[in-house]
Design a protein that fits this description.
mainly alpha; 0% strand; 74% helix; 5 helices; elongated
């Protein structure tokens, strides 16, 4: 007889793809011993995986009912309304500060321009340098906040 071909051998072998293998039941003591014998970096990874795989259950979660959810949502709504009012009043204060600064600058120009042009230019240079520093610091902070949050 001739030797069977590769195709015939494969057909004779049982199909192992349909078998479902079940994980071996290893006692927890052996797992703990194996983890303790591992090198430190590998042991830390396994310990972190073990801690993160267990879902902590706090007893207060059993007492959290529908009334509490409603109360939480009501409090959240009140907080959002208060935050909106605070931001709107802050906008009015900022507008007031800008108007006062522009009025002061106008008075400074009106009173110093006819008599002391050199003093006015020095004061304006200082104000512009200060304003540029504040604006660049604000821009840098905004850019860093966007970079860190996104």
């Amino acid at each position: 007889m001739s030797e069977p071909t590769e195709l015939e051998r494969r057909e004779e072998e049982p199909d192992r793809t349909t078998e479902i293998s079940t994980p071996a039941k290893i006692p927890p003591e052996q797992i703990t011993e194996a983890i303790e014998r591992m090198p430190l970096p590998m042991r830390e990874v396994f310990e972190m995986m073990a801690v993160s795989s267990t879902m902590p259950h706090h007893p207060i979660l059993d007492k959290f009912k529908d009334e509490h959810v409603k109360q939480f949502l009501d409090n959240d709504k009140l907080e959002a309304e208060r935050d909106y009012r605070l931001r709107s009043t802050n906008r009015w204060f900022h507008l007031t500060y800008v108007v006062i600064a522009l009025f002061s600058l106008g008075l400074l120009i009106v009173f110093l321009l006819p008599n002391n042009k050199d003093l006015l230019t020095d004061i304006l240079k200082i104000i512009l340098a200060f304003g540029g520093g504040v604006a660049s610091g604000f821009g840098l902070k905004t850019q860093l906040d966007k970079k860190n949050s996104g």
